Amino acid sequence: MTANAPAAPVVSLTGFSAEYRTRLGVTRALDGIDLDVARGELLAIVGESGSGKSTVSQAIGRMLPRVCHVTSGSVHVLGRDIASLAPDAIRALRRESLGFIPQDPIASLNPTMRIRRQLELALRPLGRPTDLESLTELLASVKILEPDRVLRLYPHEVSGGMAQRIAIALTMAREPEILIADEPTASLDAQVRDEILTLIVDLVQRSGASLIWISHDLGAVRRWCDRIVVMHQGRIVEEGPAAQVLDEPRADYTRTLVAAIPGRQDPTTKEAE
Amino acid sequence: MMQILRWSAGRVMSALITLLGVSVLIFVAIRLMPGSYEDIILGPLASAEERQLLAEAYGLDQPIFVQYFAWIGQVLTGELGTSYVTQSSVSGEMLERIPVTATLTIMAMAVTLLAGVPLGIWTGVRSGAKQGGAVGRVVSSIGISVPEFVLGSIVIFVFSQFSLGLKVGGFASIGTGFWPTFQALLLPALVLSVFCVAATARTTRDAVMGVLVEPHITAAVARGETAGHIVRHHVLRNAGIPILTLLGTITAYLLGGAVIIETLFNLPGLGSFMVTGLGRRDFAVVQATVLFAAAVFVVLSLVLDLITSALDPRVAVTGKAGS
Q: To the nearest whole angstrom, how far is the Cα of B64 from the nearest Cα of chain A?
């Protein structure tokens, strides 16, 4: 599936290894990761906590925490080796091509500012319009019902789902080519979770961007994604088309994961648990 | 609007209760000190009649609560009484001395803000870097742990021994214009501010480091915003809240520190007035100055609370905005 991707991949990790060096010792986070993401592809990375999937997403934006050191390999984004980019260039890349959707949407907003001010601050440096009408329109595009009221609120006054819509609006307003969502629905309840995922996938498909979606939720992943990468202990243990990986898992670890999906017999009713 | 009013009324009430408490404490404490007014003024050899006459003259023979209510009654009418020692009006003397202490503490506060906050931001932002951290810690530890009478004595010695451009003394020029006053008060203000600079730098550093790991900063970095933009718009506003809280404490510290610094540098301010009054058991002077310092502190904390609630909508007194 990956081999016959038509054009050059938008994201490409080659033999990428990294480790966390803390006072408590050295922990291997990623071990020789090879991963290509094609333009317009909807890719899911699944695996248990600590399997290294978040580290992969951070590595793509060169946003690894200070204690995480790259030991070998490279990350190319849109054909550029991001390790070699100057601070200005990496900022421009994050600004213009990458979009991160946060795990905890409320915490991803500045608690001391009204939504409107935050949107203005984030969009003005990009040269995007920040007048009331454009901002109202922007929030309406992520299906926020009373955008002019929401603009006047502080982050602690909106619900998790609403905050995630705002965060998505902030990200999509920049029309990124690569969208990285690290468990974007982890802090949301089941019904809102579905709405948010539909919104993300819808926006991604309309803009033609690629989506790298880090998830625990195998049911939802199967429904939305083209391809699944299964990670375990810093390695990719299996990858392939979503249905194939989930229905006929080859690696032992994938089998354990699939077996753990609640209501496996009837994924449409209980998958959101 | 109602919420603001209710909140303000509550705060004013609690401020008044605080002041009442301070007035009782200082009134009782000064009378509990060993060595009464009569002992200090008349000496150990005075006869019982002499002591009785003196006590009567100042009402000191009355029961203590009668004395207290007489004093509070005076204060409420705006009269702070006359000095037991110099017989001059306490409020008149205070009016002459307040500008000295006010200028001294405002200068020290300015130094604290202008040096402490930028230093804290700089070390906070650079906290992950290998160099600089240790130096910052050593400097702030010294700043916090050296008492100002030690530092003040060293400064007085050095500046009076060698001509370094700033004179120690020459305080007659205070009040004769901006520049002479500034020059005369610069050294005391610097000594007074050292602790506050160190404490502010440390608090600011911790606050900045705390904000830097918050998800909304990560989100801003992920959006490709520049470091300057992030610090200006997202870090400072959030880190400002603990810094403001500290400023309240620092104000109290500066008012207390002024007592030591004014005595050390022989400045004609409120602090030295208070200390002299205390030595002479000049009750009227001590009560008035302590109560005034407490009032200044209470008003300032009220103002700081208002600013904090404006900065952080989560502790807002104004209720939910826009909903």
A: 51
